[in-house]
Amino acid sequence: MNRSVAAACVLCAASACLPAQTGGVAMERPAAGPVEILRSSEVRAGMQGVAWTVFEGTDPEPIPVDIIGLWKNAWGPRQDVILAKLGGKAARTNVAGGMSGSPVYVDGKLIGAIALRISVFSPDAICGITPIEHMIEINELDASQPSAQKTPQSLGERAELRPPPGLLEQAGALIPIETPLAFSGFHESTLREFRPIFDQMGIRAVQGGAAGSLRSSTPAPGWQNSLRPGDAIAGVLLSGDLNITGLGTVTYNDGKRVLGFGHSFFNLGPVNMPMSKGEVLMVLSSQFQPNKFANATEVVGALRQDRHSGIMGLLGETAETIPVTVEVRTPGQSKQFNFNAFQHPRWTPFLMLLSVFNTLQDINESAADEATFTLNGEVEIEGMEPLKVRNRIASGAGPMPPPMQMAAWWADRFNRLFQNPALPPQVKRVRAVIEMVPERRTAAIESAWLDTNEVLPGGELTGKIYLRPWRVGRVVRDFRIQIPAGMPRGEHRLLVSDGATLNRPQMMAVMTNRFLDLRQVISVMNQERGNDQVYVSVVESRPTVYADDQELPGVPPSVLNVMQTGRSGRPITSIMETARPQIVLAADEIVTGSTVIRFRVK
Question: Which domain holds residue 497?
Fold first, then answer.
């Protein structure tokens, strides 16, 4: 071999074994364990430091840092920020999404985490550093809930869903570095549909990846040696066939507790979310929207705090998630999706919305314009009866496309469970089967009539119901109904209706009752009548009373007067008549409408 070539090979091999260097000085990457800190009050302009973050793979690299100075109260009362300029690779990539939490050291002392950016088009990589003393305070926080949580529902409640600030508004503004929320197994159309919501939360939704090992919330072997300062760290909202992970960087690891981000993830306060390692594929260089592209890998612990100045997790601990199975059936094909969902009052319903909408995208694009979806599901809850749900949605039946209607209805079930004021649900398992047929199956109740309009008490009435399906000729359904033996003589009515007509009074009563506990909420939802059935009910002149989750039909006036005085101590709602369903006719279509038939008891 040529001597010069051999010498070059030796030099290359030797350089690969050397520690990382910055500014010509060898640097040892930071290790887990106690570290000396330099408080923000001791930081001075002109100091030279080094930050650590991952640009590719799993090993962090050093970045030269020039301290500009301390910006007093820049991020709130007594919330100082250290301004700095980044060099090295960061000068080319700019302050990228995913760098949040990158630890910064001056003379070997930890001063804080890269967490903020200022201008989008600045030629300099200027960042804001959250002082480490603010992040260490997270360890002492209790289970109190912050008021400015970033959740989909809170955006609507605070009317914050407005266009993002323009470029001139952003100039000079101090904002948290965008947290890249990586979606694996999701269609681009799903991200496009929900991107405005994430933009308003300061979350950058990107298509990403996740390792096959990200299917369990149990810490993987070797968790004790994971998430060293400068490593990529991810909070896991969904894992399995569908993955949603938020990427940042580890700031500090004392061997058990891990601090990261330097700003909030969603500012949820105390959380119970799986925490995983990450692998960075690349950093997109951009003065406008630099971002890390990464895969979440093994779960190694659980996030326990999500606060204004950062996140805190515990290595080796398990965050309980919700195992979810969604099976989608189409003619000649069946697909099953299995994933685990983050359990949280605000986020779980939204994650259910996202996942069901996404699973229906394939069949929605390949199916005909006319389609009908049927969902049958069961939700197992610790210590409660299962919640059993069923619903049908068809094309043209609402302002939104069927996949969005079905996903919104499914998410509303979880929203009602989690928003009860008495007891947070511990959801153990969720199963749903969604069937699609490539045709619009709807039918309106057109009319109904009786073979005879007179009957003896306790006798039978027979008749026919005319249904008008979508673009199909009229369908006739026969029915036979038993009249109660105690029904008084005179004129009476039969109500032929869809399920919504019978559900409506109880739904209105529930909406005005703010005291339903979890058991009652489940009971009310289990009582809802389906929208693919025809109900024939005898109408009585006695009122129906709705008290909590109970429907009390045919209440005598004297009893109603006592209940309305408030002596029962329960909020009640009443309507002047009672409709008692006597028969239920199953249908292949979504049934809408109602009609009344009069008859006489002799």
Answer: 442-601
